[in-house]
Amino acid sequence: MTDYNLTNNDKNVLIAMDELSSTTPEELAEKTSMKVETAMQSAFSLSENGLTEVTDVVTEIYSLTSEGRTYAEEGLPERQIMNCLSEPTYMDELKEKLSPKMVGIATGWLRRKNWANIEKGMVVPTGNSDIGEDEKAIANFKEEKHTLEEIGTDQNTINDLIKRKLLSKTEDKYRTVSITDEGRQLVKTGITIEEEITQITSQLLKSGDWKGKKFRPYNIQTPPKPVYGAKIHPYQRLIDQMRQIFLEMGFTEIKGDVVQSSFWNFDALFQPQDHPAREMQDTFHLDTKSELPEKYKEGIRDMHEHGGDLQSTGWGGKWSEDIAKRDVLRTHTTAVTIKYLTDNPNPPVKAFCIDRAYRRETIDPTHTPEFEQLEGVIMDENMSFANLLGCLEEFYHRMGFEDVRFRPGYFPYTEPSVEPEVYIEGLGWVELGGAGVFRKEVTEPLGIKQPVLAWGLGVSRVAMLKLGLKDLRELYQADIDWLRKSQVCQLKD
Ligand SMILES: N[C@@H](Cc1ccccc1)C(=O)O
């Protein structure tokens, strides 16, 4: 007979499996009075000897969405329409009977299913409206959740219902252990559980009782409990990495106020006072106001109204001091760099600011009202557009993005303007922010004489790409499991 070299635990598990035949880890643990991990460890080592089998089962489970539930009771919109459509009927009439929304949804499906046509604002039934697989499927939903077999329909119908957002899919994962014929055979031939010493005590040594006994071998296969060291949040780690790159490239880090006057956030950047970005729906406006800098306010006003002394027309109209005074939560960190340049007009200046900005965004997987930007400026004699592209390309290379390109962009304060993009396998070109050379309309009234290269890059986008996230909100959630398992560093292969 093969010598399996089984431990007592293994033997106990095998004997239990002989009775259970096939079971879950929890049931096995209960039966053997072991911990789930210990029982499973034996189950795995038995399976290596062909005595048991451990299988992971994944089942797809479907449930009705709330919309789906409503239709399961009341019928699909196209069915509800068909029920009050004995003859051609005006769409408006139907909208009165059912809701306009319902009619809107239904008409597309009526045509698709060839139940009715729309002719001159009328819904004309074709005479054919047999109950479809999709209707049967949702009507079959008695309980909350069902597998494909339980619903009793085909995968295509299910997929269509998911696309219609009437069903949602989740996966149910579980593990089973079963005994093999070989395992049963072994139990039949008899398994003896020998007493074995698991721990040497002083008692055993003194009494000499250990003599002739079997010692449990030290098992180096036992999986240890994972130990998670304390570490810096992955997002913070990436921010630090970006900061480090700019420091290494010779930049100075600067900080600025979160609350800025519209003057520094918009006007100083030659953003017209009727620019849509300044509207209530895009910007967080505060009740407070700030004094305008005496030294620059007239210059900025002249620039906005008629282009100052430049060969520029400005934006025309009247520039309002009152609008410029209104405080906002900074909508970009460009407010910080422009102020810094104004206070430090002597070249060379190489500064960056990596910090939070605020915009009224509806929260979704790629937008949050608070987000980080990586802002930077270079001011020096003879700085050119090519230097700007070179600098940004260098930054992205150092972040590990190999392919970088620039698409033309538009910002009121830069000319030329570009939007840097990096290439991501599987995603294509991903846009990462804006950059450009500050216009004379910006630099002139602030007393800045040299060309200024400027950029404002998205930080969270980079983090999503680097951390492989599909939803930006994950960056701000304390998902302890994700944090624990996040890698501190990656080894290159
Ligand atoms: N401020 C711009 C980015 C930008 C900064 C500097 C120059 C050009 C563009 C934004 O938030 O999108």
UniProtKB/TrEMBL annotation:
InterPro entries reported for this sequence: aa-tRNA-synth_II, aa-tRNA-synth_II/BPL/LPL, Phe-tRNA-synth_IIc_asu, Phe_tRNA_ligase_alpha_bac/arc, Phenylalanyl-tRNA_Synthase, WH-like_DNA-bd_sf
Keyword rRNA-binding recorded: no
PROSITE patterns: AA_TRNA_LIGASE_II
An annotated GO cellular component: cytoplasm
Record-listed L-phenylalanine binding positions: 334, 373-375, 413, 438
Keywords, alphabetical: Aminoacyl-tRNA synthetase, ATP-binding, Cytoplasm, Ligase, Magnesium, Metal-binding, Nucleotide-binding, Protein biosynthesis
GO BP term (any one): phenylalanyl-tRNA aminoacylation
Residue stretches making up the Aminoacyl-transfer RNA synthetases class-II family profile domain: 235-465
Subcellular location: Cytoplasm
EC number(s) given by UniProt: 6.1.1.20
Residues that hold Mg(2+) according to the record: 415
Named cofactor requirement(s): Mg(2+)
GO molecular function, one term: magnesium ion binding
Cofactor note: Binds 2 magnesium ions per tetramer.
Reactions catalysed according to its record: tRNA(Phe) + L-phenylalanine + ATP = L-phenylalanyl-tRNA(Phe) + AMP + diphosphate + H(+)
Assembly and oligomerization: Tetramer of two alpha and two beta subunits.
Family: Belongs to the class-II aminoacyl-tRNA synthetase family. Phe-tRNA synthetase alpha subunit type 2 subfamily.
Listed HAMAP family: Phe_tRNA_synth_alpha2 (MF_00282)
PANTHER family in the record: PHENYLALANINE--TRNA LIGASE ALPHA SUBUNIT, PHENYLALANYL-TRNA SYNTHETASE
Name the UniProt record assigns to this protein: Phenylalanine--tRNA ligase alpha subunit
Natural source organism: Methanococcoides burtonii (strain DSM 6242 / NBRC 107633 / OCM 468 / ACE-M)
Gene: pheS
